Amino acid sequence: MRTPRKAGGIAADEIPPASHRSIRNMASGDWEISRSAIVVLILLGCIISVLIGYSMHRLMGGSAFEGQEEALEGPGNEQMAYMRQIRQRNLAMIYHGSRTKDSPV
């Protein structure tokens, strides 16, 4: 015996509970979109929005690093020499501090 059909063409026992239905086409009642599909569509929308924003930024403002190529090369010779002096001074202080009797280390 066939199950009786409702007006939308879905049997009464085939309709999932309300907690399992996420979006339903109210006009025809024939299709549903699962929650995971909604999450995927939202993620795709976010990715597309970010790409559109990035492309507009590139078109309107150009590159963030345009004209700053020398700033991306790293520290200069003066800074490297200064950093070397600081490291040597700190190592000497650690060495001499560890050689005393009062040293906690």
Structure in words:
With 105 residues, the protein is mainly alpha-helical. The protein has two domains: 50 residues; 28 residues. 47% of the residues lie in helices and 4% in strands. It contains two helices and two strands, in the order E-E-H-H. A two-stranded antiparallel sheet has the order 1-2. A hairpin with a 7-residue loop joins strand 1 and strand 2. The termini are far apart.
Structure class: mainly alpha
Largest sheet: 2 strands, antiparallel
Beta-sheet strand percentage? Answer: under 5%
> Helical element count?
2
Radius of gyration: 34 Å
As residue ranges, the low-confidence spans are none
Secondary structure: number of strands: 2
Query: Strands of the largest sheet, in order across it?
Result: 1-2
Number of domains: 2
Distance between the termini: 88 Å
Can you tell me the overall shape?
A: elongated
What order do the helices and strands follow?
Answer: EEHH
Residue-averaged pLDDT, rounded?
75
Keywords: Membrane, Transmembrane, Transmembrane helix
Transmembrane segments: 33-54
